[in-house]
Amino acid sequence: MSLLTGLLAAILLVLNTFFWAPMLIIAALLKFTLRPFEKPLGGLVNAFADLWIKCNSFWMRHAQPTQWTINAPANLNPKGWYFVVSNHQSWVDIMVLQYCLNHRIPLLKFFLKQELIWVPIMGFAWWALDFPFMKRYSKAYLKKHPEKKGQDLETTRRSCEKFQYLPTSVMNFLEGTRLTPEKHAEQQSPFKHLLKPRAGGLAFAMSVMGDSFHSMIDVTIYYPDGAPSMWSFLQGKMRRCHIEIREFDIPAELLKADYQNNPQEREQVQQWVQTLWEEKDALIERLADKYHSNT
Questions:
Q1: Given a cut of 80, is residue 218 above it in pLDDT?
Q2: CB atoms < 10 A from the CB of 231, how many?
């Protein structure tokens, strides 16, 4: 039965993607060509992505037996500007975030590596949705080419300029990769349930468009029965999912910090992120105690 459920869910996901992706891409090409209509066509592109998420949410609700617990502030604004952070355990996290945040806040836009623009179909779709593609230079490269210093930041800043005119939620997984026991041990992470956060990604995003954000949203995803793989999720084996969402003002030290060049300000950002992650780790521990004490 689980195999049939998985095949059905996979087919629905693929069909949904191949149905909406062409319309999204066509609308994006029109937006790129017809500059006077860029703003309304940008809204149309986002609308197609929203319909893709709605269709996914429909089969997730009706074809999956998941028990959802979502605790979120009542005053989130789908027409606001937010910076969103979350812990990261599985590719399923992306589906979960879209499911629990869609229509609570604007469409999530992920900061992506420049190389991902070449992913078939999805790379074009991400480009169409104005996902910011980051072109980061390594320290070794900048040592050989000092004239390139700051160009990666400027390139990403230009790609984010259009977010000033259309409500946007920028998403960042601060851990930079999915949590696994191997990665946790390799890092010697001081957190029980999390990998070490990378403050540089947050600082980079804030330096690009921090003034545009109304507030920050912190999402904690907890899977009481263990983080599912994408295939086990499609099979309907994710029985429970608990999401805690909180909103808070972005501290001034994050908005103004010169992370690359000022060691003192870099330390302030790192300490702020460290505290955020300590709170998240403690929250996950409380959720684990709650669910395990009831089994």
A1: yes
A2: 14
At 12-50, the pLDDT tens digits run: 999 998 898 888 888 888 888 887 877 788 888 889 999
Task: Provide the token pair at 288.
Answer: 């684990």
CA 277-164-25 angle, 5° bins = 95
For residue 68 the two structure tokens come to: 């959802």
pLDDT digits (tens, 9 = 90+) for 229-269: 999 999 999 999 999 999 999 887 777 777 777 888 888 88
Provide the 10 A C-beta neighbour count for residue 273. 21
Instruction: Output phi, psi for 149, to 5 deg.
Output: -60, 130
For residue 154, what are the contacts with CB-CB under 8 A and spacing of at least 6?
none
In this prediction, residue 94 has a pLDDT band, given cuts at 50, 70 and 90, of very high
Please report the domains of the chain, with CATH numbers, ordered by start residue.
Answer: 66-293 (3.40.1130)
